[in-house]
Design a protein that fits this description.
about 210 residues, alpha/beta, Ribosomal Protein L4, Chain: A, six-stranded mixed β-sheet, 7 helices, 6 strands, about 35% helix
Amino acid sequence: MPTIPVRDRNNKRVGEVEVTASVFDRNVKRSLLHEAVVHYRAGQRQGTHKTKGRAEVSGGGRKPWRQKGTGRARVGSIRSPLWRKGGIVFGPQPRDYSYRLGSKKQRHALQMALTVKQRDEQIIVVDNIEIEAPKTKEVAKMLTGLGLEGRVLIYDVSANEELARAARNLPGVTVACGFGLNVYDLLLHDWLLTSREGIERLSEVLA
């Protein structure tokens, strides 16, 4: 079974933790990772785009001029799509972009994303991820002590609102709690920071 070193707040190795090979050391399919990322981003879209059709734009239903005798093209309404300020033909309407992706595919994609992080040595496990006070400087101090720069994804097993509130003002730092871990965030961030309890939970649940 693969192992991941466990560090303290000063980035000193204090032990190691065994993880499941099927989660942190499996074959990686880039196509499945891409599919999982597209699925996640589609679900994040608001879908609130809207254009007005012919029946919705302002303007009366009166015929602008008579049908014959003027020498001009025949027109039935100033709301015609051919006219300026007329209705839009087949314009975007509010819709839900989310779609279903099989649970097995989602689990396998999450395993592959964790495997990529493990192989690139971008998983940092600390003995304790809790902070003394819900303050931004506490999280910044922990990241500085571990030598982490760039985008950092902090995974906490419990729904720790204090940790999420303390880290939200740090640019590039995201906190995922409980089962909020997803493939997109794993691949987007440079580092995955979690506790011994967190890595064991991932190894157990995703196996």
